[in-house]
Design goal:
Keywords: Membrane, Transmembrane, Transmembrane helix. This protein is mainly α. The chain has nine helices and no strands. Helices cover 71% and strands 0% of the residues. Helix 5 packs across helix 7 and helix 5 packs antiparallel against helix 8.
Amino acid sequence: MNYMRNRIQIRSAAVAWFRRHPTLVLSFKASLAAGLAWVVVHPLGGVANDYPYYAPLGAVIATSATLARSVRDTVQALTAIGLGAGVALLAQTPPLPQLAALVLAAGVGVAVGSWHRLGRRSSWVPVTALFVLLVGDAHPWHYALGYAGLTALGALVGIAVDASVPQRAKARRDAGHGRPRRPHPARSRH
């Protein structure tokens, strides 16, 4: 009997401690997702051998306090990466010197990144454009597909971790669940 009571008390204390320190839960989820993404990407071969670090990056991008926020952040990040890669590939289409392509991609990337639907991930458009131009210089399509694809793979791992680790009650309330509804003005009693 004492054993069960002690076990329940320890579990209750641990749960209370994690509720007071939600950043530790988020840190745990991010590190778990990054590690799992690293393990998942290595046996794949091909472009995964060239850029395996983008899978853990995608996992960390996707990890958030709520599953809904994880999905939203992932969609925004992958959209920004795709747009940035497109900007870079278009900047390389005309035969321009590398400096001119870089200037064009940076300017167009910032302009495209101002699209409000990208939210907090808007800066990824010009950054991705510059990465594709400078890092993927010799093989821009190969690099762009590896960057986007492996980041997406890692993001799926991050979302799976978020779905499997319980959310904080406050985070669920903040997302709109459990929030008291205000009565509709037309239906209010006078």
